[in-house]
Amino acid sequence: MAEKLFGLIGRPLGHSQSAAYFARKFEQLGLVGVCDYRLFELGAIDELHRLLADNPNIVGLNVTIPYKTAVIPLLDRLSTEAERIGAVNCIRREADGTLTGYNTDYIGFGRSLTALLGGDKPTGALVLGTGGASRAVCTWLTDNGIAYKRVSHSGVGELSYEEVTPEVVGAHKLIVNTTPLGMSPRCAEAPELPYQALTADHYLFDLVYNPAVTEFMRRGAQQGARVCGGQAMFEGQAEASWKIWG
To answer: Is the pTM of this model over 0.90?
Structure first.
């Protein structure tokens, strides 16, 4: 058994590359046998207590869909950023057994989007989805002076998908997909948008990283839009998590 155990909680986790990413990292750092990273698919967030009890060597966890907000009541404290965002994707188990929640999605998204924009600053953005990842995205956009509207089927956002007309797309040059639509193995799916309204002035950012090119990105690229998948964001949040655990 590894001295230090890390992992990812969420469901489903079949698409996740986190275990492979950290396996390579541990090999590069000479930590094979000392550190291990596993996928823990939890049927309900309340199973976290049992997971921690059964694995006293867990020192850090990442959190993904659908538990980024649901996990908060189970934590002992939040970092300032996680509290401000209202979502957690990284947990550190302290020496006394208490749990601290962090948000590294904010860091990963910000760095990746900045690289995509290349100095440009869109006047408006559409954020598809209203879950935990969406909260980090919206907080970063607010901090950087980019107005946004959230789009959802649930009525939580400012717009429904039916209200996203070609005119709305034309007025929002940045579109960020924070939903799992298009994620492996359902790679043919894409958010319901009037893609024909996209232009070379648009930017499409997809938080999905598996597959590397989603249907959302493919449709955008066909219209000349500049597109970016979630791989760089995934790596950025993973590295930020590692620093927290260290």
So the answer is: yes
